[in-house]
Amino acid sequence: MEVEPKLPDPMIDPQKVADAILDAASHHRRDVKVGFNAHVHTLMSKIAPGFAERMSARQIDEQRSDEPPRRPEGTLDQPGNAGRARGRRHGKNGTKHAAH
Predict the structure, then answer these.
(1) Among the listed residues 11, 1, 4, the one whose alpha carbon sits nearest the alpha carbon of residue 91
(2) Phi, psi (5° rounding) for residue 96?
(3) What is the DSSP letter of 99?
(4) Are the beta carbons of 84 and 28 closer than 8 angstroms?
(5) Which residues of 10-95 form beta strands (DSSP E)?
(6) How far apart are CA 100 and CA 93, in angstroms?
(7) What Rg value do the Cα atoms of the chain yield, rounded?
């Protein structure tokens, strides 16, 4: 990326997402929706696809900062230095994500 990403606060508890992934993998399910917004986005994509596409594009712009990338090479081939599984930010759903 040419700029540092500005990551949004989690809207769904990461543990719920992890549980849904494990459940989907264990029961061979391909499409699983987690949280209310997933259902809203699916419905909007069906009844107003153009509007849903514009709203998604808008989210992409909101996730870009003005800061240059801290690690332009990325962390695909080597781990980051944070050493934790979760961040320290509070999500919109009120959950606090403790550092591990």
Answers:
(1) 11
(2) -105, 130
(3) -
(4) no
(5) none
(6) 20
(7) 16
Question: Rounded to an integer, what distance in angstroms lies between the CA atom of residue 69 and that of residue 65?
Answer: 9
Read off the pLDDT band of 60 (50, 70, 90).
confident
pLDDT of residue 14: 86
Tokens read off for 67: 């800061």
Q: Under 8 Å CB-to-CB from 98, ≥6 apart: which residues?
A: 86, 88
pTM value > 0.70: no
d(CA 39, CA 93): 16
Torsion angle of the four alpha carbons 88, 91, 95, 98, in this order, in degrees rounded to the nearest 10: -10
Give backbone dihedrals phi and psi of 70, rounded to 5 degrees, phi first.
Answer: -75, -35
Contact indicator for 91, 16 with CB cutoff of 8 Å: no
CA angle centred on 57, ends 55 and 58, rounded to 5° = 65
**Which pLDDT tens digit goes with each residue over 22-31?**
999 999 998 8
